[in-house]
Design a protein that fits this description.
Blueprint lengths: L6 H20 L3 H4 L12 H23 L16 H12 L4 H21 L2 H5 L11 H7 L1 H13 L5
Helix pairs in contact: 1-5, 1-8, 3-4, 3-5, 3-8, 7-8
Length: about 160
């Protein structure tokens, strides 16, 4: 998937990915939505994949609040480094186990909308110029990584487990 080079592309790719995920899930019979997959992968069902997206939205929204206040968030999360993503994603998976499918879908819908609103509120310059002094790089990588790019990952996971397109 091509990387977005404008705010509009980021919004469009994120919306398209979100819509595809929802369409795939909506086509599933209700019992299939909670079915455990036969896999050695971390995520064992649709809920796990969707909760993963929700949790990364929450991280991104937190980072952006801290950036806007002039602070420096712990990336990706306090107590974790980028080299510890497997451990962080396992923690997210454990959190997912405390939620049912319907709750997770609502969390995801709300966090997607909040993230889209955040991106819409940012200027093109704020997204693509390293104006956040604390990271010295544009936030497009963080935004795309938690939105359009992550949605593509989720679509691939759903496809891998034969969730209808």
């Amino acid at each position: 998937m091509a990387k977005p080079v404008t705010k509009k592309e980021l919004l469009d790719l994120s919306k398209k990915g979100y819509d595809k995920i929802i369409k795939m899930i909506d086509k599933m019979p209700p019992l299939e939505r909670a079915k455990e997959w036969k896999t050695k992968d971390r995520d064992k069902n649709v809920r796990d994949v969707i909760y993963h997206l929700y949790a990364w939205h929450q991280l991104m929204l937190g980072w952006m609040r801290i950036f806007e206040e002039g602070g420096h968030p712990h990336l990706p999360k306090d107590g974790y480094t980028w080299d510890m993503l497997n451990e962080l994603n396992h923690e997210i998976w454990l959190e997912a186990q405390m939620h049912d499918f319907n709750d997770t879908m609502l969390l995801f819908e709300n966090s997607h909308n909040e993230a889209m609103y955040l991106i819409e509120s940012l200027s093109q310059e704020a997204i693509f110029t390293p104006y956040y002094k604390v990271i010295k790089q544009p936030v497009i990588g963080l935004l795309d990584g938690c939105m359009a790019e992550h949605y593509q990952w989720a679509i691939e996971q759903l496809n891998k487990h034969n969730v209808k397109k």
